[in-house]
Amino acid sequence: MKDAWFRLKAAVIRFKYKYILKEIFFLQDPETVHERMVRVGHFLGKHAWSRSLVRWLFFYQHHMLEQKVAGLTFKNPIGLAAGFDKEAQLTQILPEVGFGFMEAGSVTGVACNGNPRPWLWRLPKSRALVVNYGLKNDGSEAISQRLKKMKFSFPVGISLAKANSPDTVEEQKGIADYLKAYKTFAAEGVGDYFTINISCPNAFGGEPFTDPVKLDRLLAALDIGGKKKPVFIKMPADLSTDALDEILAVARKYKVTGFVSTNLTKQRNNGKISAEDKLPEKGGISGKVVEDLANEQIAYIYKKAGKEFVIIGCGGVFSAADAYKKIRLGASLIQMITGMIFEGPEIIGLINHDLVGLLKRDGFASIIEAVGADFKPKSN
Ligand SMILES: Cc1cc2nc3c(=O)[nH]c(=O)nc-3n(C[C@H](O)[C@H](O)[C@H](O)COP(=O)(O)O)c2cc1C
After folding, report:
1. What is the pLDDT of residue 380?
2. Is the alpha carbon torsion for 331, 337, 343, 344 positive or negative?
3. How many domains does the chain have?
4. Residue 273 is part of a domain; what is its CATH number?
5. Full domain range(s) for residue 113
6. Mean pLDDT score of the chain, rounded to an integer?
7. Residue with the larger pLDDT of the pair 358 and 209
């Protein structure tokens, strides 16, 4: 009965979002819609009545989805990826929407204006976005102070990056800005885990810390070997397997907790880009365009390293089947943005609801058993 009621509610909201609200939103400038959504979410998170209303509309929970990962408890595996809530305004409302965790930022040491506008484009036929924000954010001090005042009812990760400016192109200056951000949050005791974003595709000086020697120096400076909180690395989508191997070796040396696979793709010759969509010259591409690249990377890391690293799968998740595919390839947790923008906020509860069905169908007692199932020997 409870299940039927959840499905009915979700179907009604889904219809309204897909056929009315989304039609209106997609006629408007994407950055304006994004900013408005964050403002609305922030407002709804401030009041008990609005949190209850959102919970009543969207929330779904099931014990089969709960797991402990890297010492943190996740009520469900679906998280908001870095980049939607850059300034950490949504920590109070996202648990009510049904998210199991979120990543705020990316946050840089000093505040950063990002690239000149425009920042965001939709590719409706490709079911993807093109992103060229270039790490716009209020900086580590303002954001850590904002978060310090909040109580979180789910794990909140902090995505760390270096400011997008000619001043941080020189390696030591770049490292200094990551370090400033990391130390500011660590000093305030804010955030449940950190993700080191080495893969912003739209910043001055490119992605220097995907070079294993430079990454080694960055991780040494951050001193994450003696870390108290889990630390992940946010991976580029367009890495060769040789480059991946080198990053895995450095990550192993510094006992990194795991990887977020992946960030946006920079490749313009991706077969998933529809000829009907007009591709802007600049920006990284999300959604269905990056999905296969992310899945290949998840599978590669899991096959190479098994449970040594925790994998957070990210890229092109629009449904429970998409999330489940990543989990079976080796991801313990999932992050998403584009799927929520195309499908609406009710998709989070629906993914969780339908994931339970997929786990039951395949005979798993909990999500933990499904992680990497595609690579486990089948028992007869
Ligand atoms: C609007 C937007 C802004 C983003 N900004 C960031 C960012 O600041 N830091 C980061 O690590 N990833 C950023 N990303 C990448 C996402 O975290 C994610 O890796 C990528 O979008 C693939 O997931 P998706 O297909 O579910 O959107 C951004 C993505 C979008 C759509």
Report:
1. 46
2. positive
3. 1
4. 3.20.20.70
5. 2-375
6. 92
7. 358
Please state, as a whole number, how many other Cβ atoms lie within 10 Å of the Cβ of residue 189: 10
> Which residue in the list 81, 88, 158, 200 is annotated as catalytic?
200
Q: How far is CA 294 from CA 71, 92, 258, 350, 362, in A?
A: 25, 29, 15, 22, 23
Quote the ligand 1 centre to 335 CA distance (angstroms). 9
Residue 49 CA to ligand 1 centre (angstroms): 30
201 lines ligand 1 (CB under 6 A): no
* Residues 53/92, Cβ–Cβ less than 8 Å: no
Q: What tokens were used for 121?
A: 């484009």
Peptide bond into 199 cis (omega under 30): no
How many other C-beta atoms lie within 10 A of the C-beta of residue 74?
Answer: 20
Residue 285 in contact with ligand 1 by CB distance below 6 A:
no
Cα 44-188-43 angle, rounded to 5 deg: 10
Q: Is 314 among the residues known to form the active site? A: no
Tokens in use for 143? Answer: 């954001």
**Whether the model pTM is above 0.90:** yes
**Tokens 């609200």 sit on residue:** 21
Domain assignment of residue 189, yes or no: yes
pLDDT in tens, 246-267: 999 999 999 999 999 999 999 9
